[in-house]
Design goal:
- This protein has 310 residues and is mostly helical.
- It has two domains: 221 residues; 75 residues, Winged helix-like DNA-binding domain superfamily/Winged helix DNA-binding domain (Arc Repressor Mutant, subunit A, Orthogonal Bundle).
- It contains 13 helices and no strands.
Length: 310
């Protein structure tokens, strides 16, 4: 059992650091704040698992941590608060929903309340007060996730939507189970650092990080092979006639050539072209090539708030 725990710690440590560095690299390339928040979250995972590893396998460190929790309880406890904040920031940036000023004030109030709980002399009372504040934040994060999923973006397909809903359900279930363990520990006078619900939640988030990276690679391969026009038509709601018009214009055909091929007048061609430009949000044919280049890049490298590319 000890060897399995050792291997588990090593595997989670390497996975967390790999994801941290990978998402940090994506942030440097694409400047998307979601990637920066994800990188910071995986860094917190790495720090947490290293601390647990040292507690499990280095007896001297356990004494040091016990002393640290007595003299400065905020040092390790702040990890969980930072993780909750990262969860909220990832949701906010991934769904492209700006945070209102009142939410910033809400988080600041909870932070101040947490600082107050750390100054309470009684261990049981301090842990219970901290649990109350953290529970409020957990409910807030879960409610934010439910609200964003309820306002399902048009580009979010059914399968990805179900995957995100499942991840949110895992988050809620693990947080509820962890709250029960915390309350029972308060009654017994113990507060274990390693708790199974949090381990499960961490593994689920690591898996989600790897799955997203795999999804990006699949999109890159599909973009290199797939026909771009149907994807653009689906995204922007083009009719079948407008999709055919877009394909012919992208191939460089003139209005006259399109009219002769489709047996329609040049005026009708211009009408269909105008409707197509309006739906695509461009001024005219001169902007078409640049627009298609942007769409090709977007599909092969989706933004977090457009996570499934269609």
């Amino acid at each position: 059992m000890t060897y399995l725990l050792f291997l588990y710690n090593i595997a989670i440590s390497f996975a967390s650091m790999y994801l941290c560095l990978t998402y940090l690299k994506l942030f440097r390339i694409e400047r998307e704040k979601t990637f920066l928040c994800a990188a910071f979250l995986y860094l917190l995972y790495f720090i947490d698992i290293v601390v647990l590893y040292m507690v499990d396998f280095i007896p001297e460190f356990e004494e040091t941590l016990a002393w640290l929790q007595t003299t400065a309880p905020y040092v390790y406890s702040s990890l969980s608060l930072a993780m909750l904040l990262c969860y909220r920031l990832v949701l906010s940036y991934a769904f492209d929903r700006p945070r209102p000023s009142r939410e910033v004030a809400f988080w600041m109030c909870c932070l101040m309340a947490t600082l107050v709980t750390w100054s309470i002399p009684s261990f049981a009372v301090s842990v219970f007060a901290e649990w109350v504040v953290s529970t409020i934040l957990r409910v807030w994060v879960a409610a934010s996730g439910v609200r964003m999923l309820a306002r399902r973006p048009p580009c979010l397909q059914r399968e990805p939507f179900l995957a995100l809903a499942l991840l949110l359900a895992v988050f809620v279930g693990c947080e509820l189970a962890d709250s029960c363990i915390t309350l029972r520990g308060i009654g017994e006078g113990v507060y274990p650092l390693r708790r199974i619900p949090m381990e499960v939640l961490g593994i689920a988030c690591l898996a989600a990080g790897f799955l997203y990276l795999k999804y990006r690679r699949i999109l890159e391969m599909q973009a290199a092979e797939a026909d771009l026009i149907p994807l653009v038509a689906q995204r922007y709601g083009l009719t079948r006639r407008e999709e055919d018009m877009l394909r012919m214009m992208a191939d460089g055909m003139t209005n006259r050539a399109i009219g002769e091929k489709e047996y329609i007048s040049i005026g009708t061609v211009k009408t269909h072209a105008h409707n197509t430009y309006r739906k695509l949000g461009i001024a005219g044919r001169a902007d078409l090539d640049a627009f298609l280049d942007r769409e090709r890049k977007r599909i092969s490298h989706p933004k977090p708030h457009d996570p499934f590319g269609f």
